[in-house]
């Protein structure tokens, strides 16, 4: 694309926010950038082919190795080990997830500017994550677990997974919703298996052996996967020009000033403030119903199981349907699953039904992010990874805030004595109401259609 063509494109009327990102324009910008750096323009196929699918399979396997979604199983076990720290224990899982989401934005911006650092970043992340597992295994207090299983695991996970998502925007364009849905379904697949494995190990061997065995296994598996995460676009040689003179990608930050971005971002924030409550507390809720620990573990596993087809289906629909309709559908279905599902669950059948419904809808919400990016970005090839990380930033703020928030909601003076169904179980009533309200409020993002990009 010539300079005159770029200026002409910028002078055209703004597109409606409902339009999708024209892949040919993005592809041409990528090719032009390679030409300026003296690189080959012979690229692997986008949206398919061996390179795209092999990358996606490896990225999905990496997503399956995320452990934070299984923390509810550990919380139920840690409550017995550290009964004096029940207010601190819920923070461990939300801190781990929150750090991953919060650090993605600055790290994604850095890796967009310095793409050669992506692979070494992944190896450093793996080392830090392994250190978190080892530290948690030998931690003797809840505070020690916050630092190791929370902070260290979160930092290591960010460094490990962020470069993987950066590469997704190189390999996939028109089918990006489907691709991101498949990749994120790996989180659900891992969340199906790991609660069962973790609970069995915790019951038989205890905390130390469980964390050591899982940490070593994860490290070996991920070390075998990292070499298969490869870029599609050639990376400029470090010897081709001095680092000070090498052109850096320029990102158009104009979207920050536009209402559609903030409406979508706030919707993600509301969803994040509520989405982690069931994952953290369902095993404890099952215990409060005098059900066996296996039932509590099963609810987490089923919730993650429902995310596998949910992420793929919602991701595919995000490529085809109006984003506004999908946002409203997800908000209403997620809220209904909480108010009518969790709010009425007093037995195994009720918990199973709620877990499947909540996992399918609320658990698949992140598959919409690829379409949010298409709404906000027309022709900047460097912006998608940054926008993606900014939406995860909102989710991270919600994740971290949900830890102390849930502890406050679960305080003994917040019980709804005499309420029916799950609302009257211990202190869970207010927590259920908050979770359902957050799901409904996530629909505020649908208001973006009332605005146009300018």
Helices and strands in order:
Elements lengths: L2 H9 L11 H14 L12 H16 L6 H11 L8 H24 L4 H21 L3 H30 L4 H30 L1 H19 L33 H30 L4 H28 L2 H19 L6 H14 L7 H8 L6 H27 L18 H14 L13
Detailed description of the structure:
By secondary structure, the chain is mainly alpha-helical. Helices cover 69% and strands 0% of the residues. It has helices spanning 3-11, 23-36, 49-64, 71-81, 90-113, 118-138, 142-171, 176-205, 207-225, 259-288, 293-320, 323-341, 348-361, 369-376, 383-409, 428-441. The longest helix is centred in the middle third of the chain and has 30 residues, at 142-171. The protein is globular. Mean pLDDT is 81; it is low at 1-40 and 239-244.
Average pLDDT reading: 81
Shape: globular
Oligomer kind: single chain
How far the N terminus sits from the C terminus, by CA atoms, comes to: 22 Å
Q: In percent, how helical is the residue content?
A: 55-70%
Proportion of β residues?
under 5%
What structural category do the secondary elements indicate? Answer: mainly alpha
